[in-house]
Amino acid sequence: MYDGHVVVIGGGYAGVRLARRLDGAARVTLVDRKEVFFHRVASLRAGVRPEWTHTPFIPYDRLLRHGRVVTGKAVRIDTAERQVALATGERLPYDVVVIATGADYPEPARFTGTTTEEAAKSFAEHQRDIATAEHVLVVGGGPGGVELSAEIRLARPDARVTLAHSGSALLDSAGPARPGRKALAWLESHGVEVRLDSFMSPGTAFGTYRDARGTIVEADLSFWATGTTPNTLWLRLAGHGDWLNGAGRVKVDRTLRVAGRTDVFAVGDVNDVSELKVTPAALAQADTAAHNIRGYLLSSGRHRKEPRLYRPTRRTPLIVPFGPADGLTVLPVPGGETAVLGSRTTTLAKAKSLLTPYMRRQLGYTAA
Length: 368
Prior knowledge:
By secondary structure, the chain is α/β, with parallel strands linked by helices. Helices cover about 25% and strands about 25% of the residues. The model has no long low-confidence stretch (mean pLDDT about 95).
């Protein structure tokens, strides 16, 4: 029995989880500009190591048993006609629409183009650049910058690698100071130069970079791991700028509905929920939204479900690999304390496989 049309715009972690949760309960259409799911967690290693080039790409063809996946770009949500307009001119009717367009990440954690071939070519270019660089500069000392620096160092033990961070400690978003100290110790013990309190910007000459004190750093290759940008420009261009906050994120209430709309939801990196934007949080939001969408579609019947309020994850686990066999795991424990676990736990939990078997199963494939 199908209780309505649900159009999910965006096939990232939150969109895939929500579409799968609703498949069979509603007529689900998942729209994404990419032809495959992009497992971003594996992208940093894919940008460094050739044998990982195709690992982040998982086809959508086994995701939905009853619904369908459309490759295309959404350009407008017509709330009057309750339709999603695609760049091709196709219009998808909906009873509920979900915005799950995520955020744009800096290279190499980015799906370039729309096809697997285009994205794989981009990864191969990064691999060649890293393989020949004499000095690689990574800007940003959060989880992504630390992980990328470690991957580059292990792939290129003979190259000079510098990690520049504007803060006074690495992994400062993790809360306690111990994870940052542990990351710093690992990087320095492996010959990575770490520059703290070093806000970097491009210099006046090609291949030069300047910090806030005017110090010049020369590098023939650089990567910027300094944050993400929500993919919401299309909403602003379509006349829905009032749905966005000052940072460009979609404003939602505690049920994950877009403010003022009963039939429009937003989940994952794209919304303004105040929490660390990590994969477990995106999956939790998708589960809450799926429950509330079912309740909305059944609201006129005797099986009505009360809305579930989403509780932002204040203390989420954080896993930072240092290559495939080392890293650290920040694990919240009862009482407000935090445990910092080492290489064995991190390797088993993420570092070795980068959660690839788990995501393959989520999309209907075997773990291998």
